[in-house]
Amino acid sequence: MEEYDLRDVSYEKLNRGYETQWELMDDLFAWLDLRIYFFYEHHQWLGPKNDMRNMMGLVVSREEFEHNLIKAAQLGLAVQLDGSEAAQLEAARTTICSRVERTEGSFPLLRMFQALGLEEFEQGCLVLAYAAALDKKYEKLLAYLQDDITLKAPTTALAVQLFLPLESTMEEYLSRFARRDRFTSLFDRERLLEGQLILHPVVREFLSTGTVAPMPGLRLFDGAQERPSGPLVTGQETARRLDLLYGEPGERMICLTGGPGTGKRFQVEHLMARSGQRCVFVSLDCERPEERAAEGVLAARLTGACLCFGHMERLDAEGKRLPAEERLLQDILDLEPAHEKIFLLSQLPIRARLSRLTVELEVPDPTEDDRIALFRAFLGETELGDGLTVEELAAKFRFSPRQIQLACRQAAGLARLEGEAAVPSREMHQCCYRQVVHKLGDLASRVRPAFHWDDVVMPEEQKKLLQHACSHIRFQHRIYSEWGFDKKIAYGRGLSILFAGAPGTGKTMCAQVIANELNMEMYKINISQIVSKYIGETEKNLQAVFTEAKRSNCVLFFDECDALFGKRSEVKDAHDRNANVE
To answer: What's the DSSP call for residue 563?
Structure first.
């Protein structure tokens, strides 16, 4: 190295702190280069007479084989240094530590050292891995030091040799990389098992930017800088209880249960915004939920955020949703999350015995009054046309807050594109139906209504009855909420209409008129797919029809319904009994 001078630590700035992280990294890289040079000087290389010394790492000569066979085991660098070399390294380290103490800013690297409580050996390994990721020059240096041109990343053996403290053994420190703790979580797990130190992508992102960028299934929400996607229109009681649970000292797992789109994550976002805290949202709907959970714990530990896990349910062979596995939840706790509060978002109640206190908080489906308030809030200044009211929409569509928000946003956007002051009734209903997800098409066929009031020829009295049926839907909120009939009628608020008459008298036409008048979708039930010769299957199919109909917010049309809905008969044998059950 006579022709070259190694970069040195900035001794002239000893009395000043670091202004940027890159200034700190420049000194750390100079300290690392000095350590690598001393390792190079004391490494047990082949003698200078070896004609193939320039091919090291590519081929193994006979001389190299014999040399490796007789040489002693490689020791840590610290025991091989002479007095002046050790003093030079110590002076560089002391200078860096002195300047760090005078540093006023908080850099990502320093925050990581502090948050994870890394020892000097672990800090050195982290700096080595980060240097290899930032500067390509270290690829050739490391390949040369490790006698393998394909090893461009530092190995655990090299790291131990470089940073092994005095009076310590190689075995002791090599075994550290086999553990699963805060230190080893900084590195790619699969490559670490192969003996290579490669930083986890979350760690590289944090060291470079000081935060964690959104990635598939993982997102950091900063309540001090971000605002939730909308106002908290409903669910004030849930928010109050969340504030109490979050403010209580001690470790808690707070489980929010409720249907999809009821605002569980929305509540947590508002809680973070009120408290000015951070939260890492992790979706476990993936092939390897344990690895995704480990990424979330790491991101939360680096950023000082709490954790919120969602989409933990699993499906059985029949497609039935099951609650989260107890093993998965306990694995999350075994990762030792830094924050004492963990949020779990689940559609089903969590029944698990965990090592941390679990508190369950149900987020109920919005009531009709809630849906009215949500429609008003999300529509904002956008008006509804054709006499349509938010009360009618709330009665027709039993939507979650998320569905209402998306429908209103889409309707308002279409109105702006068309340059209209109000959203027509048909377009508003179409936007609502775009938010509906159901499987009714497997059990029924959709009918597109083609008839209106003028197409129906019938006595005025019957026509008024049909119009009253439509008014039942439109003014449902006024009757039940404003007039107080909801306290008198606890259930059975749906509307069933029986059309009776000879074939061709317009029964199907009347059903289409009602669906058209209300701008609702209409599905005709296929009797052949409902009725089954097997006992119990007909009831199961009917249950599926009504379950999907509730999700679809549509009109169900049973043609020739006497095949399904017959009156009870006297029971004389088992066939009569099963017929009555149906």
So the answer is: G
DSSP line for 291-358: HHHHHHHHHHHHHT-EEEEE---EE-TTS-EEPPPHHHHHHHHHT--SSSEEEEEESS------SS-E
Given this model, what pLDDT does residue 284 score? Answer: 93
Whole-angstrom CA distances from 158 to 35, 82, 278, 503 are: 12, 20, 37, 89
Report the candidate in 380, 372, 439 with the shortest Cα–Cα distance to residue 401. 372
**Using CA atoms, how far apart are residues 561 and 41, in angstroms rounded to an integer?**
93
Q: Are 338 and 300 in contact (CB under 8 A)?
A: yes
- Rounded to the nearest angstrom, the gap between the alpha carbon of residue 510 and the centroid of all alpha carbons in its chain is 47
Q: Which of 382, 437, 432, 436 is nearest to 404 (CA)?
A: 432
Q: Are 515 and 449 in contact (CB under 8 A)?
A: yes
The CA distance from 519 to 523, in Å, is 13
CA dist., res. 335 & res. 298, Å (int):
9
pLDDT at position 5: 67
Amino acid letter, residue 107: F
Give mean pLDDT in consecutive 10-residue pieces for the chain, a chain of 582 residues.
67 87 91 90 58 53 59 70 89 91 89 90 94 89 83 90 88 89 92 93 92 92 91 92 92 91 93 95 92 93 94 81 88 89 92 86 90 91 89 87 91 88 90 80 79 85 87 80 74 80 84 87 76 70 74 78 59 53 52
Contact 449, 520 (CB under 8 A): no
Nearest to 365 by CA among 320, 316, 399, 315: 399
Contacts of 57 (CB under 8 A, 6+ apart): 143, 144, 146, 147, 148, 149, 150
Phi, psi of 114 (to 5 degrees): -75, -45
Question: Which structure tokens are listed for 434?
Answer: 């775009």
Q: From the CB of residue 433, how many other CB atoms can be counted at a distance below 10 Å? A: 16
Pairing of strands 252-257, 341-346: parallel
CA atoms of 275 and 366, how far apart (whole Å): 25
Give yes or no for a contact between 365 and 226, defined as CB atoms under 8 angstroms apart. Answer: no
> Coil, helix or strand for 573?
coil
Query: To 5 degrees, how large is the angle CA 471–CA 475–CA 478?
Result: 150
Token reading at 134: 């930032």
**pTM of the predicted protein model:** 0.79
Output the six-digit token pair for 369: 């009054």
What is the three-class DSSP state of 343? Answer: strand
What is the phi-psi region of residue 103: left when phi exceeds 0, alpha when psi lies from -120 to 50, beta otherwise?
beta
Give CA–CA dist 318/330, Å, rounded. Answer: 26
- Tokens (6 digits) for 212: 């964690």
Tell me the angle at which helices 108-116 and 289-303 cross, rounded to the nearest 10 degrees. 110
- Provide the CA 321 distance to its chain's centre, in angstroms: 18
Element (H, E) at 425: helix 425-433
| 236 burial type by CB count under 10 A (0-12 exposed, 13-18 middle, 19+ buried) | exposed
Q: How many CB atoms lie within 10 A of CB 65?
A: 9
What are 463's two structure tokens? Answer: 């026509």
Q: Residue 275 has which token pair?
A: 């408290």
Residue position matching structure tokens 């249907």:
259
Strands 383-384 and 358-362, by their bridges, are unpaired
Residues 6+ apart with CB under 8 A from 363: 235, 238, 256, 257, 258, 262, 263, 264, 267
Q: How far apart are CA 263 and CA 285, in angstroms?
A: 18
